[in-house]
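Input sequence (575 aa), recorded before submission:
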Amino acid sequence: MFRISAPVLARTGNNSAFVSRLKSSQNTVKHCKQDYIDKGSHVVRSPYTDVPLPQLNVGEYIWRNSDRWKHWPALTCSATGRSFTFGEARAACERLSISLPATLGLKQGDVVGVVLPNMPEYAITFLGATSAGLIVSPANPLYTEEELARQFENAGVKAVVTNPELAPKVQQALSQVPGGGGPLVLTTGGPEGNDLFSLDELMNREFSRRTPRPARPDPDSVVALPYSSGTTGLPKGVVILHRNMVANLCQLEHPNVLSFPKQGAPQDVAVGVLPLFHIYGLNGLLNVGLSVGRHTITVPKFEPKPFASIFSTYKPTVLALVPPLVMFLTQSDLVTSTDLSRVRFISCGAAPATKSLIEQFMEKAQCSELDFREGYGLTETSCAACFVPSWSGLDKIGSCGVPLPLTEIKVVDEQGQALPLGQTGELWLRGPQVMQGYWRNEKATKETLTSDGWLMTGDICYLDDEGYVFIVDRLKELIKVKGLQVSPTELEGVLRKMDGVSDVAVIGVPDARSGEVPKAFVVRKPGSNIAENDVTAFVEGHVAEFKKLAGGVKFVDEIPKNAAGKILRKNLKNL
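Predicted structure, token format:
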């Protein structure tokens, strides 16, 4: 889940800043529809005015205005200082769109895996590949060989782009895929040949005007295949079309959704610390930034001192965060109020931020014009579905907003019947940003998408009398560790392979720093004497760091299940 709360202003001893915000919001009425709640059907349509949806693929949309700022910096690596202007980045993408399929023998519709840390080449790889009609399936670089192999096989990858440090792990993962999974493209260094290619060479290769260009990808073709656990089960490929991703960019660029600098103001600078394999980082940070002319500073790995130094070096104005990062900025002595003085807009997502955390951050920031807002979305919505608008007041803290332009929502009971405002139920939504379904998984698709296009989110909420969404619980089994998805089913599958385990269930338990962490309930086989450290060590050997059993292990006599054999996870919370 992606949650980005109402605009919050730093406490300044009086409400002058808030009054100023209210006055300025009077100018936004033209961007807001007044009659958007249908009290008969209980459907809440978007209060935002509609946005046009151009028939463009993602690359065409992102670069449509880039000539205006072609000499401006677009992407800079915080670790190396390596940088691309908008003109250089666009040219590199165009060259890669020609050389990548031609050199590797790929055709439109083939899937390319991307296993990279945050770096400028991530954007060039994504936009270069997708502009050639290839489908990008981003994977977490922290994944183990086993986890990567599972995604590569399910997605049917034909090639993988990675870096030299991750290459041995990726090669081992590819060796476990029937057919080998195709060639490997390395960002820098390493020998070429034997199915090894250099990304630097491919994106810098010169072509004459006569060189054939790949056909323009149709807006209705697949652009990305990120993996999500959905409401339950193992991670599944989320089928996102070019038009879904473009629609979400158009929605986010509405003048009352994200905040943009006034005409003539200095270029916005954004910190790209959110993982780009996650839809929030990919579409909600990177693609938006390139589309509107922001300078994005990519952060390969979060480390306190290097991360803190970005504020004094690059003086960012826009931050896309998750609650643990808000906590770090609030509590760390490495970041001062002066460091935060240029930040004017913050979106906080992937998990809810508490009111007290927001207030502590704002007290430290001491900036009366700082705009801090939340929203809501999923991988299945190409990033965002709801967002707190710029005209909202402080009374909406805790809400994740109203539906984005062209989006509608409703709250339903267990039978799928819409409930009146104020009643609690499952959030359903639909709009042009909603996925087409799950890759090669018709059953999961039918369990998540209705025949008339409603996406069942698995999140429990209520709507207030103005149609603002307040999330209160989850139906879904998904565990969110620092905003990253952890599937209980996946961890249970790992543990069932362990000698001495008869049955197992995994749930998420609250954690001050991570939001949630996995905890396992294990039934030993008769005669087994496995201990907690045996179980945790076994899991550590099979999964990425954030999936480890940081919540511990509890041995039980049986796992509570219903008559159909489904694990009753809520009952486990009381054990």
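Checked by second reader. Residues 188 and 201 are 9 Å apart (CA to CA).
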